[in-house]
Prior knowledge:
The complex is a heterotrimer. Chain A is built from ten helices and ten strands. Helix content of chain A is 32%, strand content 24%. In chain A, strand 1 (36-47) and strand 2 (50-61) form a beta hairpin. By secondary structure, chain B is an all-alpha fold. Chain B is built from 13 helices and two strands. The longest helix of chain B is centred in the N-terminal third of the chain and has 44 residues, at 25-68. Chain B is flat and about 95 Å long. Chain C is mostly helical. Chain C folds into three domains: 77-188, no CATH class; 190-297, no CATH class; 317-490, MetI-like (MetI-like fold, Orthogonal Bundle), CATH 1.10.3720.10. Chain C is built from 18 helices and six strands. Chain C has helices spanning 2-40, 49-59, 64-92, 94-114, 119-141, 145-161, 169-183, 191-209, 230-241, 276-290, 315-346, 351-365, 368-384, 389-414, 417-425, 430-459, 490-500, 508-540; strands spanning 44-47, 242-248, 255-261, 293-296, 305-306, 311-312. Chain C has a two-stranded antiparallel sheet with strand order 1-4. A two-stranded antiparallel ribbon of chain C has the order 2-3. Chain C has a two-stranded antiparallel ribbon with strand order 5-6. Chain C is elongated, with a radius of gyration of 36 Å. Chain C starts with a helix and ends with a helix. At the B-C interface, helix 2, helix 4, helix 5, helix 6 and helix 7 of B face helix 1, helix 11, helix 12, helix 13 and helix 14 of C.
Amino acid sequence: MELTPIRKRAALQPGKIRLNSPPSAAAEETPCTQKTIIGARDFTFYYGSKAGVENITMDIEVGSVTAIIGPSGCGKSTFLRSINRMNDLIPQTRTEGLLSVGGQDVYDKSTNLVNLRQQVGMVFQRPNPFAKSIYDNITYGPKLQGIRSKAKLNALVEKCLKDAALWDEVKDDLHKSALALSGGQQQRLCIARTLATKPRVVLMDEPCSALDPLATARIEDLIEELKGTYTIVIVTHNMQQAARVSKRTAFFCLGKLIEYGQTDKLFTNPQEKSTEDYITGRFG
Amino acid sequence: MTESLLQRDKNDAAVEFSRPLRLSVTEDLRGFLAEKIGHATLFSITFLSVLAVMAIFYFVIQESVPFIFKGSFGESIGRLTEFLTRTGWYPQSHDNPEYGALSIIVGSLYVTLGALVVAVPVGVLAAVFLSDIAPFSLRQICKPIIEILAAIPSVAYGVFAVMIVAPWMQNTLGFTTGTNALNASLILSIMALPTIISVAEDALSAVGREVREASYGLGATRAETMLKVVIPASHSGIVAAIILGMMRAIGETMVVWMASGNASRIPSPWWDLSQSVRTLTATIAGELGEVPKNTDHFHVLFMIALLLLLFTFGLNMVSEFFMARFKKKSRGL
Amino acid sequence: MQTQLRQALNHLFTLSCGASVVLLVAALLLFLIPMLKKGAVAVLFRGTVEFRKMQAEQFDRGNEEALQKEIEQTAQSRQEIYAILDQFSRGIDTEKLTDEVKGLYRDYGDELRYKDTPKEQYTKLRSQAKIIRNHLLDAFESIDKTEINEYLDAVKVFEKGNSFSGTTVEKMFAVADGFQKTIQHVDLSRRGEYAEELSVVKEELYNLFGPRPEEKTPQLAMRRFGATRWDVAQKHLSFLLWQEKWVRSDDGQSMVSRKVRRDDPQYGSFSGTSLLPLFTLVEETLDISLKPRFTFYWQYFIDDSTPGHYFGGVGPEVLGTLMLTMLAMCFAVGPGVLSAAYLVEYAGDNLIVKIIRICINTLAGVPSIVYGLFGMAFFVTYVTRHPGILSAAMTLALLVLPVIIRASEEAIRAVPQTYREAAMGLGAGKFRSFITVTLPAAGPGILTGIILSLGRAAGETAPILFAGAAALAPIPDFGGKWWLQETRALSYGCYDITVGDKLAMMVPHKQFGMVMTLVMLVLCLNIVAIFVRSRMSKKLRGA
């Protein structure tokens, strides 16, 4: 079946992807044995003429927690936001290479963005609840999917808030403004809101950077509970956090993927010099 | 490799994604059409503004052309010269109408500049006060006051000029007539102030704190900091503010119509503000209602409107230029 | 030394900055206080019984019984005043007396003919009556008291003859009697002066009390009622009591103009006449004969005005303004908000968008009178083919379009990008996320812009001058094509009532009342806008 009769499918044009590029130095020594859900091959993202990330090649396995670490401005957020095409909001950007989610090239014109973003949810750096009630925040996504039944929505709200460990704190104020919550609560609400669209993948873009240690601990517990059910990709500044929550870790530096592997291995026995420098705190 | 990767991921994730990540043909078509149609609709609505500007120019020019281009080329030039350089304005005269708009043009400039003489220093100083001197709470009080000053309808200011200022001028200041250039200028300056203040304040606030701190750090007083550093740094923004205030004043109709006295002559001596003058806007407002269509008089009024339009358009362009320059500058280019 | 100078200059600078703001506030107060104070008088005042009478007759309002009772109460004190006036004017207003006597004579002739009097007797009686008449007329014309008395005595001879008892001629005798009594107190040489002054007195009494009960209702509505307001009554009272007179100055050398009371024993025009008690009587009984009462005339904002703006309120103007602005908003809000949405969410940074922006700015800078011309040359000529509400509203819509676009653009731009990201991250498309997230978040800002431009549209006069506003247009007929009818509007009404309307010059409270209504309307809209905005910022802070 030929799709997109009207538009060219730019991303699949031959020649754009260097198919025969040798595995980069970053390629992990222990290849993925698990099922993969996100795969990148020589993926490059340009802001205007400047590359945000360059030649990323990595696989992310289903149901795991993958951490992306690296110094500021290394492109980890750019890569994360490419996965569900949140970078579309920025004008004058383009991509090269391949980024696939569930076998679909996300930068292909044939991607169903709505379905993609619903199933690849995102939690942002700063909690960003809508200026609506808690209830409306959570039902926003399901309502977009056409769920109208009050009973279903109520059940969903309860379930998601429980999943996000927020239910006990807010169950009496569901119709109060979400902006009245504390920062940590807001972030958990945002996670609950993301869960409500029943995603398969949850992308977290430094979800704890704006929170205090206590709230951070709660979010980390939450991630612990969510893994398995959801594939989680988390970008973080905090190496301890990466070590605590993730199964695999990728180290980005200056827009490039330097090293990618099992978290414990990467932290105890880094293969690359710059990785070692970074995790031992010599720069960053 | 690409295909195989996609295939592998697809196989792996088949269970995971319940809703297809790929658009079906109908979804694709529908989305494509919806976006194109939506974009086109929104664009055409937005384009209405452009059409409106073009239509305004078109109709004003269309109605003023019969005044200029009548008879031979020489006659046309003659009429245009008369219009721009002569002071005799007797359009109603049956046998020998005269269409010299010079005194009217001068009258417009006269009240506008008179207004700016008051409004510019007061406006800029008030902007300085609001941006640098006033504490936060005072600023919160002043903002609505300026807004209200801007919101009061011009006709209400006109009534104020006629019913309160004019008798005061006549009785207390001893002017021969209360409706005169001074009256109109004063009221116009009040009307231009909010524009000048708000734009100038934006310009002043856009100059960063660092600049001020640097100046204070070198031991400058507030006056020196403002006058020698901040105001020069934001001068294009302030010029834009003044031009916008000038546009407000020159395009104002009701106040000048009611308060300026409507005598079409150039004041002499030139500094005597207590004389009546007539402005472009007031001439149109006062005469168009009584003029039959398609007469010379009718067309010459559109000619005045064209003049006014070109004037404000020019000023607008100049202010845009200064604004753009200011924006560039404040971005550090 | 130098530091001191610099410090002093600094203080001077700070002071002048502060002074500018003080000047600004002073300008606002100088404008608002007199305008609102003088305008409030149109609504809050002491209304007299004449006001209530007017309300009952023109607007069918008020308690009829109570009013009737009040009128009766006032009638008594008025009657006393009228009695004095009549008694005096009998001697002065000889023209009227002449007419009266002539009329009576004619009536008598008719009476005789009606009674079928024999020819001989008819001739005799008729000639006698004629003599009486002539004597009376002579007496009226004369200014010499003895002469007048002679004439009147000659008349009285006939009265004694008894041949006229029970006829019209008896009325002539009554006139003669009254005349004789009056002239005893009157300096006949000043009769002309008296007549002039008396007409002033009568006019002012009319202004105070309206037509006398026995008079038939005047044609003009404004002549049907006396002073409806206590302040107006006070004004007329002072006109009645005081006159400008040339009097010898205190040193006796020159003549000076001075305000004197009409009943002043030395200078007053009526000193020594029988009219004298009238003035104090009017002054003392004015509150009894007018019964002023504190009135809150809120119906001012909805009442029609008759005639001109003399009585009544600004109802049609308010209605017209509401119609114009609402209709204008109907045209402008949709395109305005959508344009703003396009400019923020869709438009890139290309040449076309730059041109669009320049055009919007140009549109915002076009003088309002040019909008008026355009409205006439385009909307009236090509769209509606008739100046009316629709063409005026379209012109106003064009005027506020750039205002709405700018305000909405600012509001939409102010919505944090994270909102859009969150919505999109949950799978909303561009359109969906705009409708469900961006627009509600920008809503209060857009609403503020709309309210402010509502005020702008309500206040603009120049654009509607030639496109559908008219001074005393009738209230649109909503059964027919109301949108093609011309309408009144507050803004145009303000202009007309202060500069154009001669009748309104007599009622300054109505002039200021109209302006106050407009200013209040705009102020209220602004306050609502400020309120909405503060609510919005509070909401965004999560309070």
